[in-house]
Amino acid sequence: MTIETKKAPPSTLVIFGGTGDLTKRLLLPAVVNLARAKLLPEKFAVLGVGRRDYSSEEFRAELTRSAREIGSIDTKSPAWRWLAGRIDYHKGDFDDPAAFRRLGEALETIARRHRTERNVLFYLATAPEAFPVIIENLGAAGLTDEKAGGWRRVVIEKPFGTDLDSARALNRKILGILEERQAFRIDHYLGKETVQNIMMLRFSNGIFEPLWNRDHIDHVQISVAETVGVETRGKLYDKVGALRDMVPNHLFQVLALIAMEAPASFDADAVRTEKAKVLQAVRSYDCEGCLDNVVRGQYRAGRIGRQAMPGYRGEPDVSARSRTETYVAMKLLVDDWRWAGVPFYLRTGKRLAAKSSQVAIQFKQAPLALFRDLPGDHRMVRNFLVLQIQPDEGVSLQFGVKVPGPAMTVEEVNLDFSYRDRFAMPPSTGYETLIYDCMRGDATLFQRADFVESGWRVLQPMLDAWRDPRAPGPAGYAAGGEGPKVADQLLARDGRTWHTLG
Ligand SMILES: NC(=O)c1ccc[n+]([C@@H]2O[C@H](COP(=O)([O-])OP(=O)(O)OC[C@H]3O[C@@H](n4cnc5c(N)ncnc54)[C@H](OP(=O)(O)O)[C@@H]3O)[C@@H](O)[C@H]2O)c1
């Protein structure tokens, strides 16, 4: 996390998967936004790596063409012209060690031409199956070695493993070749302003922290709801499901930021140590505990607005008998002194009524309804602090006020802060801060190995429990609805309800 902003140091950004979707839609637009914000150094270059037979000139032309088609970059802008003059292409297969030796030579040439001081950021914008072989070949070609001068860092995209064993194996591979400080496991969710604001809100204000514990908080809800279905990702998603796709990364990042202790400083390791401690404290369930506290759903046909939507099993490339969950909700307990006994309810799903990511923190209710003997409505007021992550980023606090008039009637109202109303929001893909931080060597917003493995430790028993033939399959829910009834029941049995999305 950056406190002050200044230009990143000289460097070359090497993108494995330079011809891919992520690069075109998000990474290059983010680099252009950094250039526009004058945060990139003059001594900067980009090298795309892919299998296709492009010259550097053809690669630049393809990037320009696709940027126009997608509308992701203003290709007439000075920032794009500045960047395009620094982009090259390197053809090579990830499996081919010779391609990595040639890559080393190409990097030396670029370092001389653009005076990038031999600093290199390797970005693995590829399918996860390619991560190990790329890291292995980088190591074998000596490209991760910093002895000859300049730093070498590697950004690893999500998903990081598909279960505890695969995450551990990937960490072993990475840490056999790189030092932890060279590895940047990315979760673009942490690039979002409102996610970063959680720490600012908690630790720069004196008013929240005294209340931020089991004495004052009744429970916490973390929701990531999408209206989209699986779109063209059916084949991939059917093997993954909502739990693997969203929980170990996005939801656990938010959980850690909400539940962590104040770090001793904003130093990357101090922050990441506190975050990892949260996941280490999450209670691990046995099979029965998983079936009691974790529910899953799968969307059926329905409507969003006027548009009819197919059910999940009717989506392209999805098995007609698929048991893959498109929705998951769970109750977790963080067994530490701050949170003992406070449930954290997490939910995420596709094809829901609203696109909304939010944290809703419900404070304990007043001990009694003081005005209960007077005529009027005297229900107990609920105090929610809601951090809206997307869309309409903001913070809102719900409390009770007296309705004007002779009767003593209470009504819940909101005190709202909206980012959009207060600040000019610069164009952002969510990757700008993350790329900039990598170039500056600041790993605060990246996942450390122990965090990733602690997350999978919590989730692995759930995956195992679902494999049991006695486990109920995903409950159906209508596309465009609020999710399956089992998710409502999960809270109802504790006398609680989900906060409205959106
Ligand atoms: N797309 C998104 O919006 C998005 C968002 C968040 C995270 N992600 C993550 O980002 C990663 C990449 O996703 P993507 O959608 O960009 O994938 P993609 O469009 O399929 O791109 C894959 C890239 O990898 C290259 N490639 C594949 N096999 C190769 C090989 N053996 N040797 C050399 N190059 C090879 C391809 O090069 P050729 O074209 O030359 O074959 C292409 O550039 C995934 O881990 C995904 O989960 C994607």
Top keywords for this entry?
Rossmann fold; 2 domains; 502 residues; binds NADP nicotinamide-adenine-dinucleotide phosphate; Dihydrodipicolinate Reductase, domain 2; alpha/beta
Give an overview of the whole structure:
The protein is of the alpha/beta class and 502 residues long. It has two domains: 147 residues, Rossmann fold, CATH 3.40.50.720; 215 residues, Dihydrodipicolinate Reductase, domain 2 (2-Layer Sandwich), CATH 3.30.360.10. The chain has 14 helices and 17 strands. Strands 16-15-14-13-7-12-11-8-17 form a nine-stranded mixed β-sheet, with helices on both faces. Strands 3-2-1-4-5-6 form a six-stranded parallel β-sheet. Helix 5 links the parallel strand 4 and strand 5. Helix 8 crosses helix 9. It is globular, with a radius of gyration of 24 Å. It binds NADP nicotinamide-adenine-dinucleotide phosphate.
Briefly characterize the structure:
The chain folds into 2 domains: 11-157, NAD(P)-binding Rossmann-like Domain (Rossmann fold, 3-Layer(aba) Sandwich), CATH 3.40.50; 190-357 and 446-492, Dihydrodipicolinate Reductase, domain 2 (2-Layer Sandwich), CATH 3.30.360.
